[in-house]
Amino acid sequence: MTASESDGAGGLAAALAAPRLVHDREYARGKAAVAAALFDEPQPRPSIGRYELRRRLGAGGMGEVYAAHDPALGREVALKLTRSDRAGPGEEARLLREARLLARLSHPHVVQIHEVGAVDGHVYIAMALIRGRTLRAWQREAARPWRATVRLYVAAARGLAAAHAAGLVHCDFKPDNALVDTDEHVYVVDFGLARVAGPAPEAGTDGSPGGVGSTLGGTVGYAAPEQLVGRAPDARSDIYSLCCSLFEALHGWVPGRDPAPPARRRPEHPRWLDRELARGMAAAPERRHPTLAALCAALERDPGRTRRRIGLAGGLLALGGSAGAWLPDPPAAIDACAAVDRGLDAAWNPAQRAALAAAFRGSGLTLAAGAWQRVDASLGAYVQAWQAARRQLCETSALHSPGRLEARRICLERSAAAVAALIERLAAGERAAVERSIAAVEALPRLEACAGTGASALVSRSTGAPARDGGEALRRTLITARAYAATGDLAEARRLAESALARADLAVDPAARADALLAVGELRAERGEIEAAEAALLEAVDTAEAAGEDDLAASTWLALTTLAARQQIAPERAQLWARRAAAALDRLGDQGLRRAELEFARAIAAYHAGHHDETARLEREVLARLEAVDGPQAARIRAQQGLANAYEALGREAEARATFEAALAAADAFYGARHPQYARVAHDMATLLIQQGEGARARGLLEAALAVWTEAHGAAGLEAARVHTTLAHEAVQAGEFGRAEHHSRRALAIYGRVLPPGHEDLPAALINLGVVEFWRGDHEGALAAYREAAALQDRSLPAGHVHRAITANNIGESLLALDRPAEALAEFTAAEPIARAAPTVDDELLGLILAGKGAALLALGEADRALAALVEARAATARVAGSAAAVAELDARLSALGRAR
């Protein structure tokens, strides 16, 4: 039983033919299929937890494996279910414990576990769906050179060794429990009999006749002798099973199970290999190789090749004269890898760490100490992981094709260059770099991308040395540019990216040019140069797709989608780019971080469009994807913040508050309370607290946020202006109009200083000031502010924009307060059709406009028209949640009007 898509001939039809032999679930599924056929009813798709079962891949003694769909992450998985008749309560707990241990194991030659759980009395394991065949099927496809066979078994041995390091023994390794994908990459699967290494439990402790010991037998012919008699297996038991399997692959029969055929030897099969296998199959565990690493070293030590190398070297020495009369023994392959993991020593060492710590202290930021602790730990962990990956690549080089080996090597070298470039930027101690340092380290290239088949997609298809060398030089420039961008120096980042683009030769290395265009486009977008950014990104995607660079194309479609979402580009183009990004990621099988980024961009677009239900759905999906791939904490905090804002817009205040609290706690733990990202979450939460009447806590959060922004970017930054605006709102709610005016004028002064003419935030700041002046009783001052805002909107907003209706209504209210009803009526009359024509009618706004219109008409002596306007105003206002007080006020006005008539 495997996680392979190719197994399980007969599928569901075979299961339905004998339902009681497999699982009651199959029986129920068969009944549903019959009912659907007889009564023309839709057949519900069976599911386990959130997973929808698609087809059965195979069945075995411990359960079944299905291909299933994970709707939360939009991917196919292999779902293994244990058999309920084989698992008592103790066995279920054991399987859950050991499967969760395995889920923490990540190794290129072990199938990746995504989730472990229990439902309806069954343990299920969701794992990667490997598209390929079993190792046994691979062996039978064609006659294989013995070295090719040994190479795959050594790969499987390394996967088993990783499980041993995690404290698990497989207990049932055989050729059917390893998969070979289309790139001849091996994965060990089916840890259904795996157990934590340690003493065997007493028989019958789980209520079964043999207790857990009855599960230790494995498969006859492959199981070690100690397993068959019920003794606790250990790592040497897996050595026995692997050697039996490799012996069968080379000889065609299994010792201890099959009768030995007449003695014969394949010409290419060396005797030393049989000697190593005989040692691995010794009856006494202590006579076998002590570890799988020792077995791998023995299998990879090919005496024939060693002799040929020595002979060739001796000939060259003879031709070269008296260079020496002897040669030392060749070092073991592992020794040749002793120095390959030192590539980051120059960038990350005790002296460099001390210099970085001093640079952070020298920034003068309050957040620097906490940021350095996080950066120091994260960089150290990243460097360690890189070193382990680079050494492992060297040690397993014989297991990879030359193309894949080179792709992985280049991928790791680019990751090292990114680390070195970032460390160099942080060493400058610039305030912006220190502020962004935590997120910048977290955004370093994920090393998992350099493993498996994914690395090939990241490396250019250009194979010529000039293209490769020139392209890599350009990419080093782009890596440096991205380090500058990540640490806040967008001007230098753009200069570097554009210099790389100027040198990028389309004919020599189209991938390098596409990457340069991508970087330039993203940096133009950061500066708000929308048309220029779009042009660069569209050229990048054309270049990448023409060159077959699918990974670059996917990243560029994603950049276009993000551009469209943030800048509110035409919805039809935004939707097209999002579909193209999704299709590109589907082709790559990428359901991880980039898919989460795509859904986040779509969530931003949905929020701007007022589709808050869709925003909340997308943000929840982003969080699920990030959780599944252990995504960056910075991205999770942003998604939580976006989800909370969507809930608030939907009026789901309890959910909004709980989500804000979670985001605030996460930001505090990850960044610290003196960090700008913490301040962003605190600001948004404060707006909700103001609505909920908790002005005191809101004011505390806002004043703390203002202090953070003032320290980080000075008193005249845009983020500080946003906080001043919200503090003005809070002050109005508290009835402190002098304080409200102070904050409103501070926000307006900042916007006027730093924003370009025509920016939409300028009229918004004037309107906020007008509201404050109105509530202070300075209606002339309010009218002046509103009219200045309207003049700016005339130049920047299209006719019919709803913001024009809001401003006209505010002008009308000021004119009413100044006893100028005829002018007020003109404003309300202009605002009404705009409010009615809005894509999503805002009943609160429409109610305000109609109420103002009714008041103006009443003041002008037109009682009938006033009554009609007020009746409709009451109906619109009553449709707004939480509007009881406003409705009561309108009722009172209608009652007074009725009495007057």
UniProtKB/TrEMBL annotation:
<dbReference type="GO" id="GO:0016301">
    <property type="term" value="F:kinase activity"/>
</dbReference>
<keyword id="KW-0547">Nucleotide-binding</keyword>
<dbReference type="InterPro" id="IPR019734">
    <property type="entry name" value="TPR_rpt"/>
</dbReference>
<protein>
    <submittedName>
        <fullName>Serine/threonine-protein kinase</fullName>
    </submittedName>
</protein>
<dbReference type="InterPro" id="IPR011990">
    <property type="entry name" value="TPR-like_helical_dom_sf"/>
</dbReference>
<keyword id="KW-0802">TPR repeat</keyword>
<feature type="repeat" description="TPR">
    <location>
        <begin position="763"/>
        <end position="796"/>
    </location>
</feature>
<feature type="binding site">
    <location>
        <position position="80"/>
    </location>
    <ligand>
        <name>ATP</name>
    </ligand>
</feature>
<keyword id="KW-0808">Transferase</keyword>
<feature type="domain" description="Protein kinase">
    <location>
        <begin position="51"/>
        <end position="365"/>
    </location>
</feature>
<keyword id="KW-0067">ATP-binding</keyword>
<keyword id="KW-0418">Kinase</keyword>
<dbReference type="InterPro" id="IPR017441">
    <property type="entry name" value="Protein_kinase_ATP_BS"/>
</dbReference>
<dbReference type="InterPro" id="IPR011009">
    <property type="entry name" value="Kinase-like_dom_sf"/>
</dbReference>
<dbReference type="InterPro" id="IPR000719">
    <property type="entry name" value="Prot_kinase_dom"/>
</dbReference>
<dbReference type="Pfam" id="PF13424">
    <property type="entry name" value="TPR_12"/>
</dbReference>
<dbReference type="Pfam" id="PF00069">
    <property type="entry name" value="Pkinase"/>
</dbReference>
